[in-house]
Automatic annotation (TrEMBL):
This is ABC transporter ATP-binding protein. Keywords: ATP-binding, Nucleotide-binding, Plasmid, Transport. PANTHER family: IMPORT ATP-BINDING PROTEIN (PTHR24220). Residues 6-226 form the ABC transporter domain. It comes from the Bacteria. SUPFAM superfamilies: P-loop containing nucleoside triphosphate hydrolases (SSF52540).
């Protein structure tokens, strides 16, 4: 049986807006096992980024529970066990593409950081951009480097927020195919928020969200237990 990486029960996340509370995530329960590939889809504002931040341990729920039984204590999750691709790439502006990918490896005290970072850039077809600063990159190039950075520590779970939003159709397909190939080889789970149904169709499950709730959390292709 596959290792359970994250499990959540009745997650809620509310944000104060003036006198009101915006409930961005409302009562979501789920499980993410090793090797699963999951797309989170739904209209803008439905709560995808909020949910991904909870899954990555970057944010805490207002109520409900999330645990990472297969990944260890919450303070050791990143960057070693969970790799994150932010909606806006979020590369460090003063560092080159290569240094951006090297950084999480160095934070984990990894050996051969530069060689490993170069290999990651090559795996995503952007080794020619190694010496560029983020301001010299197109949005799509930055997205590919952000994905290479997220996988550079060999995490067991990748959480990627619209990682192909600035790529054309062919570029998006190629990046997701490369990420899925990396996931198959490492046995890691991949969760992607996307507006692109072609990207979602490549994943083994699709979670559909609306107004912070799951409309449907797909069926596991290899497992039929709920959640
Ligand atoms: N830090 C915050 N403070 C206040 N409201 C927030 C905050 N983050 C998100 N929200 C609100 O929560 C809701 C869900 O936002 P979220 O960013 O999760 O949506 P999304 O599905 O990722 O949208 P998009 O597809 O545009 O990226 C929205 O109504 C948003 O305005
Ligand atoms: Mg979002």
């Amino acid at each position: 049986m596959a290792k359970t990486l994250a499990v959540a029960a009745d997650l809620w996340r509310g944000f104060q807006r003036g006198r009101d509370i915006v409930s961005a995530v409302q009562g979501c329960s789920f499980r993410i096992d090793a090797g699963e590939t999951i797309a989170i889809v739904g209209p803008s504002g439905c709560g995808k980024t909020t949910l991904l931040n909870l899954i990555a341990g970057l944010d805490r729920p207002s109520s409900g529970q999330i645990e990472w039984p297969g990944l260890g204590p919450p303070d050791t999750l990143r960057p070693e066990r969970i790799g994150v691709v932010f909606q806006s790439s979020n590369l460090m502006p003063a560092l080159t593409a290569l240094e951006n990918v090297e950084l999480p490896i160095l934070l984990c005290n990894g050996a051969d950081a530069e060689a490993r970072a170069l290999a990651m850039l090559a795996a995503f077809g952007v080794e020619n951009l190694a010496g560029k600063l983020p301001e010299q990159l197109s949005g799509g190039q930055a997205e590919r480097i952000a994905v290479a950075r997220a996988v550079s520590t060999n995490p067991q779970l990748i959480v990627a927020d619209e990682p192909t939003g600035q790529l054309d159709q062919a570029g998006a397909a190629l990046l997701v195919d490369r990420l899925l190939a990396w996931g198959r080889q490492s046995g890691s789970a991949i969760v992607i928020a996307t507006h692109d149904e072609r990207v979602a169709a490549k994943m083994s499950r699709v979670w559909r969200m609306r107004h912070g709730k799951f409309e449907n959390i797909g069926t596991r292709s290899k497992c039929t237990s709920p959640g």
